[in-house]
Amino acid sequence: MVGRKKKTKICGKEDRISQLPEPLISEILCQLSTKDAVRTSVLSTRWRSLWQWVPELDLDSDTFSNFDAFVSFADRFFDSNKESWIRKLRINIPNSSHSKSFPIRWIDAVSTRRIQHLDVHFAFCRPEESPSLNIYVCQTLVQLQLRGVALASAEFVSLPSLKIMHLEYISYPNESTLEKLISGSPVLEELTIRACFSDKKKVLQVRSHTLKRIHINEFTQFVIDAPLLQCLKAEVILIKNFQIINSAFPGRLDIDIGSNSESLICDILTDIPRVRDLVISRRTWKQIFAYSKSGPVPQFRNLSHLNATFYIYDLETLQTLLESCPKLESLVLELVKDRFMRHNNLEPNVIFSTVPQCLVSSLKFVELKRFFSGYEGEMELVRYFLKNSSILEKFRLDTFYTKKAKCAFLQELLTMPRCSSACEIH
After folding, report:
1. CA angle centred on 303, ends 359 and 214, rounded to 5°
2. CA-based torsion, 407, 412, 415, 417: positive or negative
3. Predicted local confidence at residue 34, as pLDDT
């Protein structure tokens, strides 16, 4: 009797799950990987075809025995006779020999199935070997991520719901195609264009009244007309690759300079002084500092938030950077170790001789990050900020220590004098 009761109880649970509406079961299956969702088909005849109605699919050709098996499996989802909802689709084809055989009909199918998120990754191959995708008309698409694909020439674009567009290692026939893709997305807020190539090297006009975040790199020249722009992330190698028009752009500039060209540094320094939030790589500040040796240190008088990465060997220039930011309120400092340096045992113990104005009058938050093993000079760096920051409210440490070293560090940290009685250490 006991055995029968247990069996009845289990069966009852199974019956209740099976009796749920199909849309709800589909949402449950969404929490599984596509492969695991398919495996549920063996549970009963009731579940045999439910996996085909899952609205979120993650398809990777490498998880199949061969590419034909992958195509055959995926075709069962994209049957044009179905009216099921495909909310999110990710397709990954890491083999370049298979990219040219990609069934374009899948993209045509999902564009009419209320797709919201589309993510297509191909292994990079020559543009002439990659199928040209046409993803230009879709009423429901919210997020589009393409990597390694070729875009077909665009005559007409209508993506009224698209908010996020990421394009990486894309080939396209002309700048007009990308410009129509942007202008045909009237609510676009985030745009990434990295390592994209065109046969005709021209300037890309980015015009949008809704764009808030843009990420670009050095392969294309951009003229940006985006009045609501809040953040521009740019990788610059030889020449400045962007021009901002019709915008005061007081937001965040995330800049990585890969050249010591004086003309390039001079061009970049026309933009930095007007931003309030700056993210700079270790080599960017190094180039600016080297440039400033021939003249006065540039002043970033509007800057209130700074996120900077430093090699520990360059920390002696940190004081100069802080002196150029008299109104700085928030500092995030990440320390990294140069793996090419030969004498790792000769780490500098930096001692600052003066106290910059921002520590006295404006600096309220400091975060120190270090993800490599111990740096002996770190304690003095912490001591410097705590001792000299008059109105500091929060000091956050995100550093790596062994258990024994961490205990000793915390004990010494508790005894350090603090200039600001309101300062909290996290």
Report:
1. 140
2. negative
3. 61
